[in-house]
Specification:
The radius of gyration is 20 Å and the shape is elongated. The two termini are 18 Å apart. It has helices at 49-64, 92-100, 142-148, 198-208, 225-234; strands spanning 2-5, 16-20, 26-30, 40-46, 70-76, 106-110, 121-124, 136-139, 156-163, 170-176, 186-194, 214-222, 237-241, 256-259. The chain is of the alpha/beta class. Helix content is 20%, strand content 32%. It folds into 2 domains: 2-126, Rossmann fold; 136-259, Rossmann fold (3-Layer(aba) Sandwich). Strand 12, helix 5 and strand 13 form a beta-alpha-beta unit.
């Protein structure tokens, strides 16, 4: 298989170089010849508009070679604007997907934030079913509950959060125990993304008020180091992956575990 790894070049067998022209435009050039008798796999983290543009260049090269690549997207930008918030702001995730869908490729995304918009197969997620010693699951909001409720075979509680759509700031949380007694139980909070950690820091004290044995956090996409440090200080165990960044190479608190894709 021809493998172009835009996450970690050394993990691929197709060499490439990325340069920037004087006007700062990013440009990629493949340095190895691809075998037309083999399929093409592309690994990429779309963490910025530049990486989206570089991926589109790779897809253009593949398509002009008459090849339909398999694209494994570890992280897909646009999750914060995955719907129309108001008519003076863009529907960013739709823009990103419209650009990618111009090319002939099979897309697979790790833990897409919005399954309805991303019309491709889910490649993987950090499964709560694999986290040991979990008695009850907590969904931090309605979106998380809808995303995982069919996959996780555990009793659950959930939170409601209030957010100002104009500022994006959280204004409060409510915990719904659904009649469950979590005293002495191991509670696992699960969601797809942790950015600054505000949501998870906000609900941790609400859960602690009911005297659980432990609280753990499971998120696939960890964005900011500061966010990881904040939640690590409030949770007994934090599970993340290297989808956004190679966090396994960073110095993190001992209670943070990183799954490597």
């Amino acid at each position: 298989m021809n493998k172009i790894d835009l996450c970690n070049k050394e993990n691929g067998n197709i060499d490439y170089e990325i340069i920037h022209f004087p006007d700062e435009q990013a440009h990629i050039k493949l340095l190895s010849e691809m075998s037309h008798k083999q399929s093409v796999e592309v690994n990429v983290r779309i963490t910025s508009a530049e990486w989206l543009f570089l991926l589109m260049q790779v897809l253009d090269i593949c398509n002009r070679h008459g090849m339909k690549p398999i694209v494994k997207i570890w992280y897909l930008m646009g999750a914060r604007m995955d719907r129309v918030m108001n008519f003076n702001e863009p529907f960013t995730l739709r823009i990103v997907m419209d650009m990618l869908n111009m090319y002939d490729a099979d897309f697979f995304v790790i833990e897409p934030h919005n399954y309805k918009i991303i019309e491709c197969a889910n490649w993987g997620k950090l499964s709560a079913n694999s986290i040991p010693d979990t008695d009850i699951v907590c969904y931090p909001d309605e979106g998380a509950k809808n995303r995982y409720i069919c996959d996780i075979r555990k009793p659950f509680i959930f939170c409601n959060k209030k957010r100002n759509l104009n500022t994006g700031k959280l204004s409060g949380f409510e915990l719904n125990l659904r009649g469950h007694d979590i005293n002495g139980k191991n509670v696992l909070v699960i969601d797809d993304l942790c950015d600054g950690g505000g949501t998870f820091c906000g609900i941790a004290p609400l859960i602690r008020n009911h005297k659980p044995k432990s609280i753990s956090l499971c998120v696939t996409h960890a964005i900011q180091r500061d966010g990881i440090l904040k939640v690590a200080a409030l949770y007994n165990k934090v599970y993340i992956t290297n989808s956004y960044k190679d966090w396994q190479n960073e110095s993190l608190p001992e209670n943070v575990a990183v799954k490597v894709w």
